[in-house]
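Retro notes - structure team

What went well: the batch runner handled both jobs without manual restarts.
What didn't: labels got mixed up in the shared folder, which is why I'm recording both outputs here explicitly, each with its sequence directly above its tokens.

Job 1
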Amino acid sequence: MTGPDGGDPASTGPEGHFRRVRRWRPQRHESRVEKMIREATERGEFDNLPGMGKPLNLSGLDDPDWWAKQKIRDEDLDSTALLPPTLQLRKERDTFPESLRGIADEGLVRTILTDFNTRVKQDRLRPSVGPASHLVCRTVDVEEMVQRWRLSRHS
């Protein structure tokens, strides 16, 4: 079958001008996530993000915890929560009495120090496995630490 000018009826119009023929395309399925990303990109929400245009820091990828360490460093997070309990207690012990300086009540200071000693004793009773198992934390002398706390508050 031919058109009015003798050509293909789908490719030419009545005045002999070519018209576009839409080709069949399979319908593309867009997941919910893909749609959200596409819409956010169209709105410009990914423009001017921190680090845009800078090379990725791929150093330390041989360390399985590289991403956690980088997150801690980038967001200036306290990494002591990642330490074994004994090391956490040791770090806490090292802050006494300076960390208690802002407390005005001696009874509360004693309660904090007694609680610390209780946690140290509980840590010693916990079953230990692995290389950190030989670590222990010493308790604090509550009376001596209260005396140091008093001196630190008056200086």
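Job 2
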Amino acid sequence: MFARYTTVSGDPSKMESAIDYVDGQARAAVEGTDGNRGFAVIADAEGGRIIGASYWDSAESMRASEAGLAGTRDDAAAALAGEVSMESFEMTHGFRHSIPARGAIVRLSRLEVDPARVDEAISLMREETAPRVKGAEGLLSFQQLLDRNTGSGMIVTTWESQAAAEAFWPTAEQLRARASDRVGVRFGAMETYTMIRSTVQLD
């Protein structure tokens, strides 16, 4: 599966109407496009950021959808009086315990790894990291997203509450340190969002 993360950054005072647009007309347009496997809308109200994360059954369908959905991106930017940026990834590993409800906590941990070591990073995640994460109390879903060509990516976790996410953080720091030592993964700052809706078909 592949994912395109479209971030709109703009005026926090316009968040409510912008969320209504992205979760309404924009989501309907994405979900009605061939090859789509669902859409997630997450928001940082205080920071004036909305992410529309579209998931696709192949890299080809993701690329083919880009031009046809350009209008929805422009309208989302207008609704938030802001700017749009896009990132595309392969979902190299993922699982879900339950579909996140509105208000769930979403954490994005950005990372960089040498493209020559991407397969090592994927193996480490599947064999060692994911099993440690899977049993975490309050965890709803987990994804590893990577661009094999550049080595950039994200770990995306969704939690029932902020307390659950924070309780796991000491373990997450240990896992990040191991990935850095073993495969040379470089982690960036953690970003925290609130789930608005997810229709992503991880199963």
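One thing worth noting from job 2: The two ends are 11 Å apart (CA to CA).
We'll revisit the folder naming next retro.
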